[in-house]
Specification:
two-stranded antiparallel sheet; 297 residues; 3 domains; 6% strand; 52% helix; mainly alpha
């Protein structure tokens, strides 16, 4: 018995490069490879119309949508335009949804990928329950900012607090220290940051401070008489005038307090909310005056 063999060479496609944007995708895990659209087409019908030359082009979905998205038609398996109205409507709807996904800008797609990568990196940190280096600290801070901006209140809220605890542990600080009135950063924080005073080239005359400095001030105006005349011009009833005078006098004695702080200190917050929001003007004025006299003692 005699056997005869022949050698057959086979090729396997492993890499595609988009002819539009240059995106490179391989079979080794790149999902874009499966979504490439390759077109092979004979041009024309004879020597006048292209002489049967072939056109070959490989496009990623983004470039395909940019180039062809506005001119595509929905066809059935026989490559004829669908005539059935119901099926056509369903096909158009399905096509519209698919194209909407494809046509997302590459910037948005990149942002979604970065957000997903950040979430996965933060998950790895939480699984170890420790921040090991500055790189992981940066990941944790970005994820906390992301969670804080979106105001997660459910399971992600637990993630926010866990990451915050790990950040505090890595920086050897407690959470309350971030909200103290003092400087929020150490002197060695961002040592190469720019000094606003040293690099500022603004002419002080063009700033608000410089412009206001040139306005003459009338030192003969009495603040109390000016306030009283303003109240009189507004024709307020005695109760409201009494209330405004009480507020003004107390704020004059306690310039360090803002109006909101003054009211919070004067009103007993142990009262039920309806009583606080429906307090009469004369009662509020007496309360503010009482607070002012108490703090003087």
């Amino acid at each position: 018995m005699m056997k005869t063999f022949k050698t057959i060479t086979t090729q396997e496609l492993t890499t595609l490069v988009c002819d539009g944007c240059g995106l490179r995708a391989t079979t080794e895990g790149d999902y874009e490879f499966q979504e490439f659209i390759s077109i092979e087409h004979h041009c024309g019908y004879g020597s006048i119309h292209g002489d049967g030359k072939r056109i070959e082009i490989d496009l990623c979905q983004q470039c395909f949508a940019d180039m062809c998205g506005g001119t595509l038609r929905i066809t059935d398996n026989s490559n004829s335009i669908t005539e059935d109205n119901e099926n056509r409507a369903q096909s158009i709807l399905k096509y519209s949804h698919t194209l909407d996904v494809i046509c997302q800008s590459k910037t948005k797609a990149r942002q979604l990928k970065e957000s997903s990568d950040l979430r996965l990196a933060a998950s790895d940190i939480l699984s170890k329950n420790k921040i090991a280096n500055k790189k992981e600290l940066t990941v944790a801070l970005k994820r906390v900012e992301q969670l804080w901006d979106t105001q997660f209140q459910s399971a992600e809220g637990i993630e926010l607090h866990q990451l915050a605890d790990l950040i505090c542990a890595f920086e050897k600080k407690d959470w309350d220290s971030y909200f103290e009135e003092g400087p929020l950063a150490d002197d060695d924080f961002m040592p190469d940051r720019l000094s606003v005073k040293s690099t500022s080239t603004l002419d002080e005359n063009n700033t608000a401070r410089g412009m206001l400095a040139s306005i003459p001030i009338n030192t003969e105006v009495d603040d109390e008489s000016s306030r009283d005349s303003a109240l009189a011009d507004n024709a307020l009833d005695e109760t409201k005038q009494y209330l405004l005078e009480s507020i003004a006098n107390t704020m004059h004695k306690h310039p360090e307090l803002r109006l909101g702080q003054l009211l919070i200190n004067a009103i007993n917050l142990q009262q039920p909310c309806p009583e606080i929001f429906h307090i009469e003007d004369n009662v509020l004025a007496d309360t503010i005056n009482q607070f002012s006299s108490t703090t003087e003692c």
